[in-house]
Amino acid sequence: MQLLKNNIVFIIALFIVLFFVVIGILSPDGLASLATYLQERIIEMFGWGYLLAAFIFIVFNLYLALSRYGSIKLGKDEEKPQYSYFGWFSMLFAAGMGIGMIFWGVAEPMSHYLNPPEYITQESGMAAKFAMKYSFFHWGIQPWAIYITMSMCIAYFSFRRGMPPLISSCFYPLIGERIYGLPGYLIDALAVFATVFGVVTSLGLGAMQITSGLSTVFPFEPTFTATVIIICVVTVLFLISSLSGLDKGIQMLSKTNIMLALTLLGFMLVAGPTTYILDIFLNTIADYFSSLFNMSLSTNPFQGYEWTHSWTMFYWAWWISWSPFVGLFVASISRGRTIREFVSGALIVPTLLTFLWFSVFGGAAFQVELTRQADLARTVSQDVSVGLFELYEFFPLSIGLSLLTVALLGVFFITSADSATFVLSMMTSRGKLSPPAAKKITWGLIISGTSVILLYAGGLEALQKMAITAALPFTVLMLFMCRSLNKGVAYEFRQHSRNPYLASPEERYE
Amino acid sequence: MLKTAVLPLSLKEPKQRLYDMAQCLKCFGTETVYLVHVMTDKEDSPKQRTIQHTIRDIADSLRELGLYVEMYFKSGRIADTVCQTAKELEADYLSLHWRKKNVIKQTLLGSADADILRMCTLPVFIYQSRKHLERTSSLNRVLYATDFQHTDSAVMPYLQDSDFRTDTLYLLHVGERAPDPYAEEERRQESMRNLQRLAEECSFAFTTVETLEVTGSIKGQIIRQARKKKVDLIIVGKSKKAKPLEQMLGSVAETLPDRTRCSLFIVTDIRRR
User: Fold this and answer.
1) Which residues of A touch B180 (CB under 8 A)?
2) pLDDT tens, B47-86?
3) Which residue in B148, B179, B194 is closest to A172 by CB distance?
4) Is A171 on the interface with B (CB under 8 A)?
5) Superfamily of domain B4-127
6) Do domains B4-127 and B139-272 have the same CATH topology?
7) ipTM, 2 decimals?
8) In the CATH hierarchy, which fold is given to the domain comprising A2-491?
């Protein structure tokens, strides 16, 4: 009975995951139409809620960081941060959005340039300006605010208040002991559900992209078999990394990642149109910050409505559905930092690096597109994964750059899958910081196996949409988490500034 | 401590209710009642003469209960005038016959009772009739909701007053749950210790003193516990140091009269002014 209780989240989550996987195998079209319907309806009805919630998270983070609560440590008072700044930023970046940026660094500005909202002329200067601004917006402060909110709650309740590092722990001030009952199990199971589906689809789609990247360098066809081989290699590597423990594996991989990424970034900045890129960087930062408030709350009901739905709201839902995974991981690497340090560090540094990345790759792509008639935008619109590799064709050492990118993708994949396996095992082991190896292997194999099966049967994108549907309940849960965290930090100060009157009843009637 | 009461009359109060309320006042040891009516018409108008006649009738019926009654006819803004008169007469407290108004009515028209409660620095007794009270005319069960703040120092002397005749006192603390189970246990134990200390301090004035420690919404829990324990009177303290939201929406003490069917005794901690 105790064994069942200890593994109840594991069993519930496994059941839900297998249920949808079986549907995805038996009827990929059925799952696809159900998932598409759900996702479209949710974004149609609650898209405004995502925008509002993301904005609230920014305000909440800034409020905590700038108020007296900013000095509270995400750990015991005497604890020191476990990782150096470099190690911490590397892991933050790798878990948060590293892999997505590799693909979208070129593809997103080009997509917006070619297909902006209807009130902007396609492929115009205005479209280019819009494309850069919205690329910054979709990968800027909001996604990090979502992640920070989730991870700060988990870190506070786990490391400072001594509760298990689970999402359900964050609700103790609101629902008390019921976190150990059905409501708590459902919250954690939902988090596992969103994480598994998100990672499965990322692994599957990413493996396809690695295959197509490699096929541009080496003479082979990007077939299903090649993709399966890549998934198998990645699986073996991330399982080795995962079993070696968080400290060694993920940190080492993340540092390698960031070094590779910075090398690539530096090369492109120097070898590319440096002044043009820096102009774009500065100009887009000015555009971004001057219209941040406007973009944050614009649902665009009069014009650009469809565009906002298919991009901004989709992104917000995606970041939120990823937040349990990233939040748990980021929390586990942020122990010992103060709230102020955590918010400022996680909000400023990765955002700036992201902006620089988009400026370098987006800027280089624009330069090639506008001055050399490369037609990159149309190529990207047909296949997002080849955008970056097509861009390299216009630069020296293009084969080397492609190989470096594939290596970067591979390492990012291994890091993501490694941290996902760790987080899933932790969530399904009642928050153990050293989850059993058997569970890590189980989740690792489930993720990879499901990716392969769904790649074969189809239904991978349907599964991704199912993961995004989890964003709706998570948005509501995260708003409650803000309330809960606020109660928690306020309690600490209430305890510190206790009414001395209570301690001395004699003084009462003086 | 509660010898003299000011009873503002709008004359919308049913006579029987006023009579029942006066009987309740005697439970506090009240001997003198000042009936105050704030006039809006000219003093010598026929309508005013009728009002004065009615109030004289009310005064006579209250005198039959053994109370010393004086009448005052004033003019001006109701809440200001009532509070000023109570101050001039050096009354110990104010007694209101609360008429509930729905949100729309209260928002559009306002409520003189709510204004008096908001502005008055004296303790305010709010009478809400209940069937079993009318039968017994006594206050058997009293609930004091404490937040362990300075308002305790304003309320406790009333609970320790021998004239305050009731059988059972419930001491309720509605706490905010701590962020983790260990801290929550500590918080609960500390709350129980504080409640116990308050209970000891006023145990001689009551047959039974029971302590209650709960978590949740303050307003909701006060009402729930009062209903559960079937209390006749809720006592709350009112601090002048309200949070910004409370200043806009009203403090717990100011919003309780519209939410509960129990009578209320609201004591303002004037030291906070």
Assistant:
1) 157, 161-163, 172
2) 777 888 888 888 888 888 888 988 888 888 888 899 999 9
3) B179
4) no
5) HUPs (3.40.50.620)
6) yes
7) 0.78
8) Amino acid/polyamine transporter I (1.20.1740)
